[in-house]
Structure formats: structure tokens, C-alpha cells
Amino acid sequence: MPAPRSTTRVRTHPLGDAALLAELGTRLDTALNTRAIALANALRKRRDVRQAVPGYASVTVHFDPDQTTHEALAASIKRLASKRPPMAEPGRLHRIPVVYDGPDLETVAAKLGLSPAKVAEVHARPIYRVFLVGFVPGWAYLGPLPKELELPRRHVPRTRVPAGSVAIAGRQSGIYPLATPGGWHLIGRTSVKLFLPDSDPPSLFRAGDRVKFFAART
Amino acid sequence: MLLVKKPGVLTTVQDLGRPNAIAAGVPAGGAMDRFAHRAANLLVGNDEGAATLECTLSGPELVALENCLVAVTGADFDPRVNGEPEPTWTGMFLGRGDELSFAGRRQGGRAYIAVAGGIAADRWLASMSTNLMTARGGMHGRQLLAGDVIAAAGEASAPAISGRHLGHNLRPDYADHTLGAIAGPHIRRLGAEGRKTLFSSEFTVSRDADRMGYRLEGPGLDASGDELLSFGLAAGALQVPRSGQPILLMADHQTAGGYPVVATVASAAMPVAAQLLPGDKLWFAEVSVEGALKLRAAQRAALDLIKS
Questions:
Q1: Using alpha carbons only, how large is chain A's radius of gyration in Å?
Q2: Which end of chain B is more exposed for a tag (fewer CB within 10 A), N or C?
Q3: How would you class B81 by CB atoms within 10 Å of its CB: exposed for 0-12, middle for 13-18, buried for 19 or more?
Q4: What's the pLDDT band for A194 if we cut at 50, 70, 90?
């Protein structure tokens, strides 16, 4: 049986005169994210493209306006996106130890009607996907978080979240790579370093990688 | 080559940034006013990408430890050599012992100092730009301090000639705070009225303004709608968070975010944006991509004149 023809429609929007945003969809979806990563990889090989950064379901393309135009690039992107993406390679698997003793663990458990131990157990159950690396150096948006743990962000963000904090918000999880302000619920901490300033790329996680948390004592 | 006697309010080493690092969440960074940075380099015979000093709000006091060729561009902080006024946007020799200082801010927020041969500094992820958040690049990842010594990275690519100059009419007009901006991916969220408000109202740079971005005060903009999935951002993007007070993203902006982007400032207008300080008024004027590219080409031509 022939493979189903792709029906992904790409919408491109100027992001200034030297960048554009190519949107593949608006849903949090692993297949869309796989396509976004494949499209970014294909675009990065072009000489007129300076950088292509995958989002959840989009690619932001920084290009040299002396070498190409929005229109020409948009047409190429539509062509590339209509091709069937290469088989998604299973991303590298990272096993991350977590001490589930975050300052929000009790509150989160109470809000969800679960015990703190159950919150930890549910959080450590899935293999998460790295949908997107960005925001601050080394930060990765991981998902999807099990529905049982879905909560809106904190009303009042913290002005300083310690590096290594393991956090949840919405259908996502993440680890603060640096001490920064943050509005997510802190349920644990890890000693694993996410931001690796002396490596290139300086981030442990890359878009498309997989992450498995496991409970640790210290 | 130059001894830092006084560092100024915030003086950092900057070049054209590290665009290849954005996929790891590291800001591209680099000089806020790329035109002034490039011009300063060309005026002393460097390649455009050599590292310069970006001086915010005030200039440093530097003593030449040997003869060198320098140029000061961007904001006008009233540069002096041994106390005597010197022109901006002009290559000039400093003899050993000469002191380059600044009498005070007259216009703009960021001045650039280039030295023939470029400034030697820590290279991190293919760039010498200082990233203060991660304390990497430039002068050990920090702003200049008194006692620092600035060394030349190498030889200038063009002969050391003083007196290279960029005329007033070829520079960005820093007094005109109307920034050309291209409609952004989420402009429709504003509706017709909101779009009119965006492109006709006066905004003010709030106190919350740094190399990452400027929070603006002005008429509230309503770009509400379904929550967006985070996507990669670009310098010049104008984000509208739920508060309705837009944020203009600058050189060290976060690499990804989920707020609607209603417009992006044209690259040729970013030098003017880079000179704005808290309290400054600004306006956005809608331009087409073609219009923005024309402005960009005009700036390119001005820079090429220095080389010719």
C-alpha cells in the first residue's frame, strides 16, 4: 500500500527582512515536531540560510537577504515540507536522576488530589520528547506531561529558580539550566548539568532527544 | 595596548555575535548597533566583524600604552583626547600615553570604540561577544573594569590611516525615533483598530530595558487568543504579552518564546533602536519587506564608501 500523501500545509510569515517563521501546525504533536526538526536540518544546508531553528511545530529561518528573498525561500520551504520527511531517528535517550523534594511538590499534589509520591511516580513514568531547545541556554521543553499532572503556571513567577530545578507546567516538563526567574511548579531537582558552556553545542539536550526521569535519593 | 582607567557604566566587548548557538538556546548577541560597530571597524581598517567596545550610557577612560589607531562611532558621548574634543565617526591616532575619555552624553545610548587590529578577547562559540548571563566571551564574560588591559587581536586588514570619516548624511539619524517595522506573524490578533494603534501611537522605553530587550509603555495592545506553541525569535521582534505592553527584543533576546509577535523592526532601523534609553519616545511605521530591504541596501552602500 502506498504511504499516505502528506497533507501538511506550511504557512510562512516574515519575521523582519532577514528571517521568516514557517508554521507547520498549531498543535503540540510529535509528528509535527519531527517534521519541523527535519525541515530545519534540510534548510541549514542551504548557503543562503544562516540558521534554521525548530520550534514545537515551526521553523524560524534566519537568511541572507542578499542571497535570497522571502518568496524564494517560502517556495523552497513548501517544496521541502511536501516531501515525506525521512524516517525519524529515535533521538538519544538521556536518563536523568531526580530527587523529588521540590518546594511546590506538596502544593502540586494537593491541587491534583494526589500524594506527593504519586506525583513523582507519574512524572517519572513516560519517556519525554525534547520538543524544543531554547528560551535560555540549555533549556528544553519536554513533553507531553501526563494529563494527571496538568496545571496552569504559577500565578506569581519566582524571581529566582535554582539551576537544576525540575519543573512542570501545562503538558510540559523542564529543567532550569541556570538560575533564572521562572513560573513553573518546582517538583524536584537534578544534579545533571543541562548547560555545557565548554561543549559545542553547549546544550546537553537537542531537539528530538528522549528523556527518562528516575527517582533518586540525593 | 589600552589601559582601562575608568570602565564607564557598562562597557563590553562585542562583535557580530554567535548565530550558530541559537539552536542550543544561547542568544546570538553581538553589537546592539551593528551599523556603528561595522563603521568603527572600517574606519580603522578592520574587517567588520572584529571585536569592538560597546559603551552604554557613558564612555570609559582609556590610556594608550602604545601608538594605535582608534575610531568612536554610535552615540555621541563627546570624545576627548587629552581633554581636547575629537570628532566621532573618524579614524584617529593615539600616541603612547594619550588618554581617550568622554565628557558626557550628548545623543544616543551606545558608543562603539574600534582599535586597528581588533580587540583580543575570549572567544566562545565562535564569537568574542560578551554574554553577561552566562559570563562567557569578551573580557572573561564580564563588563570592563578599571585596570583591564585591552590588547589588539592582530593586524588591521587595511593600512593604518587616520582621518577616514563617515559623513553625517551617511549615518543613521539617531534623532528620528520612528522605527520602520514589518507586520509580524500574529498581527491579525490586533484587529484593524489595534494595528492602527500600533502604527500610530507614541511608545516610551520603560526602565526595564537592557541588551535583552525593552519593555515599552504606551497604549495597551490586545493580542490575546489561543496560547501559542513556542517558536524561534529574532532581534527586532515586538512581542505582546498578556499585559498588553509590548517588548522589543534586542541583541541578547531569549531565543524562543510563545508570545504573539505583531511586528519586527526592520534591520536598518535597529541601529536607532539600539540607541534608545529609558524615557525615550518612539513610534513604529509600517514598512514592506521591500521597503526595509531598500533601507538596508542604503546602509550597506554607506559602509562600502568607507572601504573605497
A1: 19
A2: C
A3: middle
A4: very high
What CATH architecture is A93-215?
Answer: Beta Barrel (2.40)
Instruction: Tell which residue, A196, A54, A64, A68, has the closest CA to residue B125.
Output: A196
- How close A170 gets to chain B, by Cα (Å)? 11
Which residues of chain A neighbour B261 with C-beta distances below 8 Å? Answer: 15, 21
Query: Residue B1 and residue B67: Cα distance in Å, rounded?
Result: 8
Which among A212, A21, A188, A203 has a CA at the least distance from the CA of A120? A188
Q: Average pLDDT of chain A?
A: 92
What domains are there in chain B, each with its CATH number? 2-170 (no CATH), 178-307 (2.40.100.10)
Q: Which CATH architecture has domain A11-82?
A: 2-Layer Sandwich (3.30)
Tell whether B69 lies on the interface with A, counting CB pairs under 8 A: no
Distance CA B242, CA A46 (A): 37
Nearest to A132 among B124, B234, B256 (CB): B256
Q: How far apart are the first and last CA of chain A?
A: 52
> At A35, is the secondary structure helix, strand, or coil?
helix
**Beta pairing class for A210-215 and A93-98:** parallel
> Shortest Cα distance from A121 to chain B (angstroms)?
27
The domain ranges of chain A are 11-82, 93-215
Which chain B residues touch A13 with a CB distance below 8 Å?
184-185
- And the C-alpha cell for A204? 546537553
Render pLDDT for A21-40 as a digit per residue (tens, 0 to 9): 999 999 889 999 999 999 99
Instruction: Check residue A141 and give its pLDDT.
Output: 95
Give backbone dihedrals phi and psi of B59, rounded to 5 degrees, phi first. Answer: -95, 165
d(CA B50, CA B41): 7
Give dist(CA A130, CA A199) in Å, integer: 19
